[in-house]
Amino acid sequence: MLQFTERKLPSFFYLCPMRVTAKELAVLLNGTVEGDPDTWVDRPSKIEEGGTGSISFLGNDKYESYAYQTDASILLVPKHWMPRKAVQSTLIRVDDVYAAIALLFKQFGQAPDLEPAGISEQSFIHPSATIGSEISVGRFSIIEANAQIGDHSIISDQVYIGAKVQIGKHARIYPGVKIFHDCIIGDNCTIHSNVIIGCDGFGFAPQADGTYEKIEQLGNVIIEDKVEIGASTTIDRATMGSTIIRKGVKLDNLIQIGHNVEIGENTVIAAQAGIAGSTKIGKNCQIGGQVGFVGHVKIADGTKVQAQSGVASPVKMENQSLFGSPAFNYTDYVRSYAVFKKLPDLYKRINAMEKKLREKEDQ
Fold first, then answer.
1. What's the rounded Cα separation, in Å, for the pair 99 and 118?
2. Facing residues of 229 across strands?
3. Where are the alpha helices (DSSP H) in 84-144?
4. Which is it for strands 220-223 and 184-185: parallel, antiparallel or unpaired?
5. What's the CA gap between 151 and 107, in Å, rounded?
6. Cα 333 off chain centre by
7. What superfamily in CATH does domain 4-108 come from?
8. DSSP string of 246-266?
9. Annotated domain spans of the chain
């Protein structure tokens, strides 16, 4: 695995018109060059688009055909990949293509700092709030009473931070984020635009006359260190206690997390997933897009759930792969689907067999 913290690209590589060569990239990536070491690039590209001066990659065998078609100047490939046809790109062979790409994207994405230096005069910070050193607070942002902001954090424009909120060091909070009272955000967290943290959970008590009485939501949300939350995701505060997002969790856009949910360490969840209240998801889980979880269930560590599945019961065995609605073992689902899609033909064949049996019985 590449050690990202030990090497940096040359400063001219950061989104400017100058060029970096295959030889320089190979040094950065612990790779080997196959082709012209002086081939230059100044931007990344998808393998199917390419273009002179671009760098692309082959990380999945199903895209191999594009490796023989692309006109990208440099192509990152696995160290032991053996091409079956001629490749016009200069190759850089690396141990881990995706790790190499992650590093390159991080460097390509270092745009000039457009955040206001220091605290904007158009922001409002309550006199009782505690503000760390070397932070930025953007225009029209509000920081309420007794809130705490850690050192080196960046608060973009139009961010609302409620009373008694605690935000750790090196936080990056994008425009339009709303963090309501008493919530706690750890160190090195990234919260993308329009995320809402700590809004009321969906709690209502049915009444005898058919109406619903709101149950006050008295808890908070705790987000531990190194969590990244995608745009327009909503995390409800707990009814009592805390909704908890553990260390290293990565959440995509447009996810709904209900009150008193707990997400375990290093779990990743794709877009449009929904998790009903009081469900506990283990650590190192991988949840696909549009997956739904019922409330009050516990999901074992290492569980993988395919996109658009519905999880309606507890998952007790670790490291299972699930599919379907209601979701069950992935392999069993695929086998069942192989039969299911043949049902119309089987139905016709059974009808034909029954018809023949009736004809014999009538003779």
1. 34
2. 191, 251
3. 97-108
4. parallel
5. 23
6. 25
7. MurE/MurF, N-terminal domain (3.40.1390.10)
8. -TT-EE-SS-EE-TT-EE-TT
9. 4-108, 124-335
State how far the alpha carbon of 202 is from the alpha carbons of 117, 207, 283, 290, in Å. Answer: 39, 16, 25, 19
**Tokens, residue 73:** 């100047």
Out of 126, 170, 259, 296, the active site residue is 259
Q: In one letter, which amino acid is 304?
A: K
Tokens encoding 4:
């990202």
Query: Which helix or strand (DSSP H or E) is residue 289 part of?
Result: none
Architecture of domain 124-335: 3 Solenoid (2.160)
Residue 259 falls in the annotated catalytic set: yes
**Rounded to the nearest 5°, which phi and psi values hold at 350?**
-65, -45
pLDDT tens series, the chain, 363 aa: 223 233 333 333 343 445 789 999 999 889 999 999 999 998 888 899 889 999 999 998 889 999 999 999 999 999 999 999 999 999 999 999 999 988 887 766 654 445 556 899 999 999 999 999 999 999 999 999 999 999 999 999 999 999 999 999 999 999 999 999 999 999 999 999 999 999 999 999 999 999 999 999 999 999 999 999 999 999 999 999 999 999 999 999 999 999 999 999 999 999 999 999 999 999 999 999 999 999 999 999 999 999 999 999 999 999 999 998 777 687 877 787 777 778 888 888 888 888 888 888 777
Residue 207 dihedral angles phi and psi, to the nearest 5°: -105, 165
Nearest to 195 by CA among 285, 259, 258, 256: 256
Question: Count of CB atoms within 10 A of residue 130's CB?
Answer: 12
